[in-house]
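Our consortium's second objective concerns turning raw sequence data into structural hypotheses that experimental partners can test. To show how far this objective has progressed, the report includes one record in full. It was chosen at random from the queue rather than selected for favorable results. The single chain below, 137 residues long, was entered without modification.
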Amino acid sequence: MRELTVLYDAECGLCRRFRSWLAAQRPAPDGQGGVLRLRFVAAGSADARALLPGLDHAATLREVTVVADDGSVYVGDRAWIVCLWTTWEHRHTAVRLSGPAMRPVARAMVQAAAGLRSLTKGGDYADGCDGKCDVQG
């Protein structure tokens, strides 16, 4: 796996913020001497439909969906985990969250984000963020 396509809701402030955060992360190695590449595509868009004609594009607007260059499709908590896995800093966390003991935690995090998203859909949650929450220390 060398490239992942992340389908995100471009109309959702929380989704756009996650996209920006993920794009800013240091990429993890791909195991073949390079790094994992991410391509971001607005879910349900003409670009998404042309690029991935076999997907249920209405469903991609409801849940984050990630498609790997090997054809693997990740939805919901699996998609969030694979997004973390693509980053240098958060790969270990993704591996832990993917295990049977922590998978319920990953599901709960995704459900919490989905709940927040549904409350703010059409709003501007995270659009006005000054980025200070990204600074560690």
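The partners drew two points from this record. The chain has a mean pLDDT of 81. The CA atoms of residues 2 and 36 lie 5 Å apart. Both points have been shared with the crystallography group to help prioritize constructs.
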